[in-house]
Amino acid sequence: FDNFFTAQVLWDETMAEKIALFAQANPDYQVVVIAGQGHIIYGYGIPSRVARRFNNQLEQISVLLGVQSEKLAGENAIADYLWEHLF
After folding, report:
1. FRET partner for 8 with CA separation of 20 to 30 A, picked from 14, 18, 50, 54?
2. pLDDT score for 71
3. Which whole-number Å values give the CA distances from 30 to 20, 46, 49, 51, 78, in the listed order?
4. What are phi and psi of 34, to 5 degrees?
5. pLDDT in tens, 30-86
6. Are the beta carbons of 39 and 12 closer than 8 angstroms?
7. Packing angle between helix 4-25 and helix 46-53, nearest 10 degrees?
8. Contact 64, 40 (CB under 8 A)
9. For residues 17 and 10, what is the distance between their CA atoms, to the nearest angstrom?
10. Domain range list for the chain
11. What is the pTM of this model?
12. Per-residue exposure over 31-59, b if at least 16 CB sit within 10 Å of its own CB, e if not
């Protein structure tokens, strides 16, 4: 795990760059990204990196599936919307 953080940042930056390039080249399209929670929770990862590329002028919505409410403690909202499964 020595380089985990560096690898995670590089991965998030690469995904954000690809999203930004597509969105800029195709302004009439909506972009849907399916990513693991580690890439979106608390507004970090992909969402913040895409926002930075657009000076916060691009509307983004994060939906987190299958989260349990007891895991929601944090400084920022974990996501814009939560979808919780009850079995």
Report:
1. 54
2. 55
3. 12, 16, 17, 15, 22
4. -110, 115
5. 999 999 888 988 778 999 999 999 998 989 988 888 765 555 556 677 777 777 655
6. yes
7. 50
8. yes
9. 10
10. 4-83
11. 0.76
12. eebeeebebbbbbebbbbbbbebeeeeee
Question: Which of 79, 82, 81 shows the shortest CA–CA distance to 67?
Answer: 82
Q: What type of residue is 81?
A: Y
63 strand-pairing partners: 81
Question: How many Å apart are CA 48 and CA 60, to the nearest integer?
Answer: 10
> Could you count the other beta carbons within 10 Å of the beta carbon of residue 70?
6
Pairing of strands 81-83, 63-65: parallel
DSSP 35-87: --GGGTGGG-SHHHHHHHHTTT-S----EEES--GGG--SSS-S-SEEE----
Q: How far apart are the first and last CA of the chain?
A: 34
CB under 8 Å to 85, separation ≥6 — which residues?
Answer: 65, 66
